[in-house]
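Session log. Operator J.P. requested a structure for one protein chain; no other inputs attached. Running the standard single-chain path with token output.
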Amino acid sequence: MKKLLLSTFVLAALTISSCSKDDSSDPVAVTCNDGIQNGDETGVDCGGSCEPCAVEGQKDGIINSQDDPDLDASDLKGNVTADVRLTNDTVWVLSGPLSVKEGATLSIDAGTTIKAVAGGTNVYVVIEQGAKINAEGTTDAPIRFTSNASNPRSGDWGGILIIGKAPLSGGGTATTEVVDLTYGGTDENDNSGVMKYVEASYTGARINGDKEFNGITFYGVGNETVIENLAVFYCDDDAYEWFGGTVNVKNLIAVNIKDDMFDWTQGWTGTAKNLYGLRESDFTAITEDPRGLEGDGNLDGNSPGDTGQSNPTIDGLVLINGSIIEMADMIKVRRGSGLTLTNAYVAFANEDAKASDFIDLQDGKGNANGSLVNISIVGNSSTGLDITDVKSTENAVIEVLDGTTPTVSRDLFNWTAYDFE
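Structure written below.
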């Protein structure tokens, strides 16, 4: 009798089955109908059978399906290797890097809110080369990225990086400023997806004085990518920056930006329609040289002989300094960059607001490419702006008119619910 009982015990102990885990193949022992809810059972005896018991999946930092445990609304981070979707029925908490890998698409429902843990440079979203983002908010249901801090501030988290395969000045590829990823290539028509009605706030975490995140950064992004109706509020570096590429953008607003509102370098040749930059009266945080618009032809002016340097076309631009601080320049174009700018307006909105220069095309590492510069702009002298303060360069065409009417309507940005007054 004792031998029979022992054999039965051993047989039960050897009854092993591999319960399904999302990211683990470790076998789990089956506990049969002993009338007890054991640690690996979801109910008493898994419903009374000896079938493998369901166990919770284990996280491994890779999101490879919609059901992956790493696709966790309360702890969102990891490498996205399959098409996944962030739904608008919950608030997603971004707790670390979310990197969308080649071949995968990150879709975000209209009306979704993503709150980033205030973790500085280790919290960001990046769409890598060959990956896509599908973030189509609407006027009534925008997509909002913001800080999860109780007292949010600029620089709480990194921001959004879009990385493509479009050309850079000088050709070839390069490595991103902050996360060491490859960008650039030869595909002018590269497609990184869609971003419409997307807001990013409290971005721009800094690694050091030379390496900073921006609100939204476009690295070699191609012109099949759709970028429309974006907003960046409270950024510790630039609101938007283009590193080369051919992407076209439309209806972008930047409010309370510590450094540059709009910045390009390394061969951006796309178009922009309706850019609006504003610094409020009580926003006094600044970098060494904050600007409304800053454009370089090649990266940091270190390759003046590059072919294919920056030459964007901008139709519709408003830049307003409403703070008491002095901006370095309202418009700075330099280092081989061209620019076609029409329907532009610059003003101060504070009697103590200043700028070292209204328009400056000169720089110690190379002036703007004057033969490719054509600027038509309205400056509001009634606000204290010196509209004669123009530092030009050879062959540049600059037409300045005095006026009081902005050239971009605030109504374009009603979807943000931002109060301009």
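Operator note: The longest strand covers residues 193-203.
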